[in-house]
Each structure stands twice: as structure tokens, then as C-alpha cells.
Amino acid sequence: MLAHSLEEVVRRIRRGADTRSKLLEELEWSRTTLTSRLGELTDAAIIRPGEFAPSTGGRPATKLELNPDRGLILALDIGGSHSRLAICSADASVVRITDLEAGRTAGSNVVAEWIRASVSDAEADRILAVGSGIPIPPPRFTNGEMAPEQRDWESFSPAGILSIEVPEVFAQDVAVVARGEAQHPEAKPDALIVKIGLGLSVATLSGHRVLSGANGAAGAFLIPHADEFVAAETLFSGYTVRNALVRHGLPRDAPSSDIVAVAANENALGRATREALHEMAGRLGTALTSLVAFVDPQEVLIGGNLAEADAVVDGIRSALMERMRPPQRDSVGVHRCRRGREAGVVGAANLALDALTTQEALTASTRTNRQETA
Fold first, then answer.
1. Is residue 181 part of a domain?
2. In a shared domain, residues 160 and 97
């Protein structure tokens, strides 16, 4: 990162150094240099003065914050059978959310039509960047061997769908969930995040940063089965639960949110669903034990639609606690994701915000402002 860069100032503000005194302490710059950089960012409407900080005895300092009125961010969290779209302000705060009971398996055309219908022309004109979580590995990780449903998403472009030219950033769906959790005030620096919907994926937080891997595909969870290693979701996921419950009357195309709703019923299908979820969760917790031992997180967070079922979170927790060894058994917490169903879009919005706050992007914005005011 460049010395005395605009990016460094914005990064510190996003992480909580929201007064001049805090910035001076962390950056160790001269007051003149910091004042110059803050002036550039303020003049370009990238940051603005906020409320007063708590007084420490003298005149209270004014907090600095990203300017939420600068424009909008489009955030997408696309799952196997459920998708979520959020319109966010320029500081990545969620303004409104729209849901679709379809996702990867329905095809990109279905999701594209939903995006067009969900974003007004007035909103599209104000979008500064797009962040998306998609449940497929990046193309370079597949060596050209892609399933038809993966190939269908290879050229997916929300900005193109809306006919706008803005930066757009993609990550695996579990990575944006992990990023959304990392932004929570109570987030632990080191965590294992498990997203369970119809599919299953895992992400790792280290020092509040999502580990993406050399190919951007970290999180593939393989386990031994028969004479080979298979994706864990083929044994522990909403797919396996749904397939087991078809004989009890659950529709073959039921999304993961329907499975959770059915589990709340007291009829025979509801009881069978709870039993199937608990069994799946116990086996998944057992499989996760080696990952927890290897990564050594402070906590395991369970997200995705199936995480809304108590039987899932409780089953994973019980299996892990039974098999973990000290000191992990006494220190690792197992919880539902703190941001709940919003974790993915919050993470996707912050992914887009990263693209807007690189040194290159900030320099371009401040240069444009100088030209317009000259």
C-alpha cells in the first residue's frame, strides 16, 4: 500500500479509527498530511463528518464516516435454491432486501429476470458497484471441466443485466457470508463458518480476514467415502435431507427454507423432518471435528437457510462437543451466524465497497472532483 495513501485512511475509518486523533495515533502521519488527505476525501464526498464522539474531558471530537449518500451498492447472495438481493447505501448499510425462492439450480436466466424486476431504473442509475456471492467455484479452479449448471453461470454479470458500467466483484457464497460475519461488532477474529442450505460449504476467518486460497476456491469440504473423496454436501446437506424425506411426502424440488418450515410442524412429516435434520447435523458435526482441530478457531458459526432450524445447530454443537479435545472443547463456541439471513448480502456489499475504496478508485474519484470544481 502506498505511503500516505487515501486507501489507508479509508481502511482505518472503516475499521473504527473514526476521529482525527485516532487516525493520527494509528497512522503516525503528520497532522498536515492527514488534514490534506481528509480534505481530498471530504471534497469528493467519499467521507463526511458524523456525530460527536464521547467527550474525554475537553471539546468532543467529530467522528468521520463514509458518506452513505454518495450512491448505492447492489449486493447479491445467490444460493442453491434461494437468493437474496440488497440495495445498500454507499457505506454498505442495507437499505432494503428482496428474496427469491430460486437460485443456482433454476439457472442464471431466472435470477437475471428477478434482478431486472427488483432494481428500479432510478436505483440502477445510482449504483456504484456490485458484489455477488455465487455457489460455484471460480472458472480457473475447474480446469475447464464444468457441469452444465456451472457453465450457465460463467458469464453471469448483474451489471450487464442492468446495463450499467460499474465495478463488480464475485466470491463464493460462503465467502460473502463469512465476510458479513467478520463485519459484526461481536465477531471473533478466528472462526470457521459453515453454510448449509441445499448445498454445503465452509469458510475460514483468520484475523477477521476470509481465507480465499491460491485459486479463490478455499472452502471445498471433501470427506472419504467408500474408495474416494467426495464433496461433503453429497452426504450432509439439504439435498440429503430432502431426498430422505421424499418418501414421507416432501416435494422433490422443495427449497431449504421449505424444509425448515416443515420441521416446525407437529405432524408426522414435521417430526420426520426434525429427525432427519438432527441426524444430518450430528454426522456433519462429526465430520467437522477434524477441521476444527486443524484450524483451531475461536468459534464455529452456522449459516444458511438450514441454520434456522434448531435441530441443525444443536445437532452440530452436540457432535462437536462430544468429540473435541481440550482445550478446544472448553473454548470453541458453536453458534448460529449473528447476522442471520443478512450475512451474505452484508458481505457482498462490503466486497463491492472494497472495490470502491482501492487507492486507484479513490484517486480517480478525487481527480474527477477536482476537474469538476476547477
1. no
2. yes
